[in-house]
Amino acid sequence: MKIFIIDDDEVSIFFARHLLLLENAAPDITTFLCAEEALQTLQASAVPDLPDAIFLDLNMPIMDGWEFLEALAPIAQKITQNCRIFILTSSLDYSDILKIKDYPLVSGFIHKPIKQEDIQMVISPQM
Amino acid sequence: MEIGLNTAAWERFIRVSPDLFCTFDINGIFIYVNEASATVLGYSRETLCGRAYSEFLSPEYRAIMERVLQDLKEGTHLGSFENCFIHQNGKVVPLLWSLAWAEEDNLYYATGREITDTEQNILKLTKSEQQFKLLFDLNPDLIFHESPQGLITEANQSLCNLLGLTSTEVVNRPFTSFLSPDMASLSEQNFRAALQGNTSQFDLQLPAKGGERKVFEITRYPLMADGQVIGVQTIGKDSTPLKTALETIEDQSNTLETIFDSITDGFYLLSRNWNFLFINQKASELYLPDKDNLIGKNIWQAFPAEVNGVFYKQYHDAFETGKPVHFETYYAGGDAWVEVRAYPSAEGLFVYFQDITERVRAREELEKLSLVASHTNNGVIITNSKREIEWVNEGFTRLTGYSKEEVKGRIPSEFLHNPRTEVKAFEAVKHKMLKGEPIAFEIRNTRKDGADIWLSVQVNPIFNDQGILEKYITIQTDITQRIKNQQELEKLSLVASKTSNGVLIADKNWHIEWVNNGFTRLYGYTLEEAIGKRPSVLLHSFKTDPTVYKSLEEKLLRGEPISYEILNLKKNGEEVWISLEITAIFDENGDIVRFIEVETDITALKNSELELSTLAQDLYRQNRDLQQFTYIVSHNLRAPVANALGMAQLLTLTDKTSEVYDLSVANLQKSIQQLDIVLKDVNAILSIRDSQGNVTLEKANIKLVIQQALASLQEPLQQSNGEVHINLAEDLGVWANKAYLYSIFYNLLSNAIKYRSEARPLKVKIKSYGNLEKGVLLSFSDNGSGFDLEKAKNNIFKLYKRFHATNNGRGIGLYLVKTHLEAMGGYIEVNSQVGLGTRFLIYLPNLQHENIHH
After folding, report:
1. Residue A75 has pLDDT above 60, yes or no
2. B800 touches chain A (CB under 8 A)
3. CB proximity list for B367: less than 8 A, separation 6 or greater
4. CATH class for the domain made up of B7-115
5. Which of A12, B251, B579, B722 gets the most CB atoms within 10 Å of its CB?
6. Which CATH number fits domain A2-123: 3.30.43.10, 3.90.1150.10, 3.40.50.2300, 3.40.50.1010?
């Protein structure tokens, strides 16, 4: 299983990565501190190289999670073939949860800190 | 004895002689000349000797002289003759010569004697004197000479005969002594003119013997000799008979002229062949100003425009029929109407005329008036002095329903008044009318059909030329509508006066007709002060919004009542919020006659409304702040908490000796520190928020505050090799909270250092755009990395928004800058370009001793 983590918070990445490792969910984890870098990687990737799942933080400088999703829209078809995107945020703002309805690319909304059952849900076969 | 005289004696004789002694040769050259030459010719003997006599001889005598000398030589001349020499002074000197030829000496011997004018002319005079004497003495005209002193030197027989005096009685007396004083002065005047060298002619009356007076035509001229006036000669011809006849005519003519001139009419007399014979003063004043030139001229030649005109025809008529003519016509030459009477006679045509322009104009005016009167909507009645109707116009019939025929001979008040007619108004002025004064009153009359009609009546008496009252002209205007309106207004006022609201009644042009006591209580204006004014002039201030009425006007004009709220001004200048209700009142034709405004003071209501609105705004801001706070809590406060939770969980899952465990502990610490920072931020923000509306301002020196902020950042600034240029006046001050001001500059400087460009050393420039009257405008620019303004524009000053991935900014600096500035009533703007730098514009108002209200 191949997973991307996009988050400007290194502590948050540290935790997610180790929990994923502990759960033996994915040996192949790539982390991005900047959403733009992740975007470029995704744009450049062929369908087989796409990750199976992306954990996306919302509150980031330069390009936040929402902007990332919008930037991804042109290649949405390619992405959906082999990739699911999960919002991973510390936000408790209910408006953020409501907002994911506008983004069909988003497969789920996870509150930080990520929990084991969240990881199980991600690695389980298609919901 | 005689023979005994010696040569010397002869020479002595010759020398003393007054006569010339000379000899000259055959060629005429003087050989000898005696001393007398100096006296007679003006030349010395020495000058003359050796020169030809012909040089000194008057030229006309040269030929004669030559012949005389020739004859003398041949012995055929007597040797005595006259000629003229030229004296050295140019004068001609006549000389009587005695000449002899001496063959033996071959010389002519000559003696010459100077002869005078008188001597020369004696002969001639003697010859002609007798003739003149006769001419002088026997002349039928008066002839006399006077000396320059004015004494008669000679007078002829005619003058002596006229005066009845002898020649000796006349001579040596002044001529004026024979004259009457006025004639003497006339004569004296002409005498002096003659002495000046002028000839004059004038008429002079002379007293003849027997007391008769005769008129003489006098010619007086100077007698000249050698360019000098030596006397005056006068010739007088008797002109008495002619003169007297002329005078008689002139006298008669003057008398006539006086008569004609005193006629107040214009008068002129035309001869039978159309020449002007006389024009009187009035005629000249009126239309014939060039009177003297016209006399003797043909009227039709002088006034060609009138040929075949009215005058032409009438005058010809008069001559042809021999009967007087009388006509009125317009005379274009004088832009006037004239009345002319012309009487033909054997002498010619006597024409009398007068200007009747005013009369004609008055008549025309009257004609026009009656034309107007017959068409006007007003009623017009003409009665005789007994007030019996002679004529009424159509207007009268329309107003009263009575035709001209029905009312003829009746007295208006007798059939127009009815029992309900309030006759007081008429009775009050009736006696004036009967005395002949114009009157005006308003009265309720009855139409023929019994309906009431209110009339405004004006009665004007008309007098004839003798000042006797002849007629009355009465003009009636229908004021029923006005009276009705007035009555309605009174009714309305009665109702309105009871209400405690302000009530204003205005006419259709929005002029106030009436206000009630409530209005006076509301605004302070009394009825008298308000009447005739427009509400907008009386009550509106610059704060009053006139567009509200405009937007509703159409509805009002359609007949619907309108209501709105408006801020008006009381008489004492106080503002008052009014709820207005306006109703338009229409007449039966659907035309607006007036507006009624009911005004209610809603100031208290309005104020609470405004307070409510402020409150709502405050609430909105609070709510917005709250939302922002929720955001902080949900994101920034929650993030380190989530991390801490995660780390804590990880610690339970990992081996204590593993590297992950240690890292987890470190991250846990980091998360908790972060939590602490966020909590501190929240505290800082809340403290600014709390103090809002209660910021203490003091005079702060901007440069000083910037330097304090710089001092705290000295170390990072030096590390980044940065420079700060402050271009501000030393004393540039602003009313501010010093702590806030410090925070603003600290954050801006710290940002500049944090986001500097790696490509170049940091440069920060701070300058002011003058200490404006209203506040201070500062620019704060750096040459740092900049940011994408397009992307960031909505979030730059928001809390926890960051635009740089690499730096560890928290996203609170600019939020604080903005919050602090706003707390002091200022604002901030930003401009930035990636790679070039960022510029902030900071504005702080100059509020003195004043707290900031949001």
Report:
1. yes
2. yes
3. none
4. alpha beta
5. A12
6. 3.40.50.2300
The CATH code that applies to domain B692-845 is 3.30.565.10
Q: Does B246 touch chain A (CB under 8 A)?
A: no
Q: What is the DSSP letter of B451?
A: -
Which pLDDT value is given to residue B613? 85
Residue B645 has pLDDT above 50, yes or no: yes
Encode B776-785: b = buried (16+ Cβ within 10 Å), e = exposed: bbbbbbbbbb
- Among A14, A61, A90, whose Cβ lies nearest the Cβ of B639? A90
Among the CATH numbers 3.30.450.20, 1.10.3720.10, 3.40.30.10, 3.30.720.10, which is that of B125-238? 3.30.450.20
Q: What is the pLDDT of residue B117?
A: 63
Contact A113 B639 (CB under 8 A): no
Asked if B658 reaches chain A (Cβ–Cβ under 8 Å), the answer is: no
Q: How confident is the model at residue B733 (pLDDT cuts 50, 70, 90)?
A: confident
SS3 of chain B: helix, strand, coil, percent, to 5: 45, 30, 30
**Shortest CB distance from B804 goes to which of A11, A16, A61?**
A61
pLDDT, tens digit (0-9, with 9 covering 90-100), for B93-136? 888 888 888 888 888 888 888 876 656 666 566 556 666 777 77
Pick from B650, B800, B803: which is nearest to A18 by CB?
B650
Nearest to A111 by CA among A15, A41, A18: A15
Cα–Cα nearest to B474, from B487, B461, B492, B493: B461
Beta bridge partners of B594: B507, B585
- Give the mutation candidate from A6, A9, A11 for the B interface (greatest B CB count, under 10 A): A11
pLDDT (0 to 100) of residue B772: 63
Q: Quick one: CA dihedral A95, B672, A34, B834, positive or negative?
A: positive
Q: Does A49 touch chain B (CB under 8 A)?
A: no
CATH T-level assignment (fold) for domain B360-478:
Beta-Lactamase (3.30.450)
Q: Do domains B483-601 and B692-845 have the same CATH topology?
A: no
The CATH homologous superfamily to which domain B483-601 belongs is PAS domain (3.30.450.20)
What are the boundaries of each domain within chain B? 7-115, 125-238, 244-355, 360-478, 483-601, 692-845
How many other CB atoms sit within 10 Å of the CB of residue B57?
A: 18
Of B633, B646, B805, the CB nearest to A15: B646
- CATH for B244-355 is 3.30.450.20
Q: Which pLDDT band, with edges at 50, 70 and 90, does A4 fall under?
A: very high
